[in-house]
Amino acid sequence: MNTAPSLAALKPLFASAWHDAGAHTDGTELCGALLAAYAEPHRHYHSTQHLAECLQGFEGVRHLAQRPEEVVLALWFHDAVYDVHGHDNEAQSAAWAQQALTTAGVQADAAERVYELVMATRHTSVPAAGDAQLLVDIDLSILGADAQRFAQYEQQIRKEYAFVPEDLFRTKRKEVLQSFAKRPRIYGTDHFHGVLEARARVNLVWAVA
Known about the structure:
- By secondary structure, the chain is mostly helical.
- The chain has a single domain (about 5-209), classed as Hypothetical protein af1432, CATH 1.10.3210.
- Helices cover about 65% and strands about 0% of the residues.
- Helix 4 crosses helix 7 (about 130-140) and helix 5 runs antiparallel to helix 6.
- The longest helix has 19 residues, at about 190-209.
- The two termini are about 25 Å apart.
């Protein structure tokens, strides 16, 4: 996986998407709040590193997006709320996105689309097409990372759930990984399927074993 942009480089990416979405504010305070959220101490994977990797991944496939600014904003918000004990993180993150966009004067239909994009990262089903499919593939690109980064990812997830007993964690983690491995395609877009599918399946076999 390519080197992710630095934290200093993330703010202009947010500002550009925020402006392109039609927001009437500069978004500086909101961007700071989002970066602070991703830097919370209990986050080991769902952190600024993951955010930066997602944004870097998107830059390489921006041309595939129907509404690039909305995909970028959805990436910023998709893990904005992350409570390891919670079961509605995506819903809370999506609601924050919709409220922030609406308050800033973004059109209601655009705010609703960003809301739906964030909700797609629940990974309860495979998006049929469009920006949701692209967003989900970017979020899951870690599954197709090189072996070293994938191993780090698995360690980071374990740290986030350090309170879970080892046997229970292994059982639940295996269920999650197998749910992806059993899909006919892990990646919906032809781009990510071609680039990451084979490596993701190797990583999943290793992790499950």
